[in-house]
Structure formats: C-alpha cells, structure tokens
C-alpha cells in the first residue's frame, strides 16, 4: 500500500538550475542532494528535512510554461511560527526580485490567495521563479 511520497517533480525552463538552487535551497531552506552522475546539470534534487521525501527539479518543455495552473504540491511546516517565518522569507525574496525570485507570493499580514473556508488550515501560496504554484501549510 502507498505510505507516502518519495518525491514530487517540478519542471523549470532549461538552464535555470542555479535559480532552482537559490529558490529551493536558500529561500525555502531545503537541502541539496546529489543527482545521478549522468544527469548532472539537468536535475536538482532537494531533501525535505529528514522526512525521506524529496523535491526534484527537472527541465520541462517550453509548452509546460503556459497559463498559470492550480496544480501544486503542499509543503507541511512544523509550527505556526515556522510558517510565518517562511512566508516572510519568500515575500522578501519576491520583493527583492532577481532571476530566482518567486513570480508571486502571498504578502505577510494579507489574506492568502487560496480558496476560503473553515476546512482549510493556516496556509499561504507562492509561485516559484518558473511559475510552479506552491502551497505551505500546517
């Protein structure tokens, strides 16, 4: 039976692994891990804490980057404080700009951009530099 995720794969434009390392490694705080030898330079892999779960970044076709999609992974944070800290860090990167900056980010203190309802936990959304929608939740 299924017991969890091994990894989620997100696509980015060709030649943007440096931006992936900045956004996923530095801004989100994920730990870079080695990729298969024959795929170096075409993939970036990141560990999600000590969960044995990973985020894989791979180059996608130009057709992968059309209108924004609602498809997204949701990253679970360990506490409300960590969720607030990460939201601020992502917002700061968005405001600072640059090649690896998120395309969109929910501003700290403002309402989050997702659907509303009591069923939804405390959360926020962002779009990475390639437009991938990301959710962060308790």
From TrEMBL:
Entry-linked InterPro entries: Glyas_Bleomycin-R_OHBP_Dase
Region feature Disordered, mapped onto this chain: 97-117
Gene3D superfamilies reported in the protein's UniProt record: 2,3-Dihydroxybiphenyl 1,2-Dioxygenase, domain 1 (3.10.180.10)
UniProt name for this protein: Glyoxalase family protein
Species in which this protein is naturally found: Vermiconidia calcicola
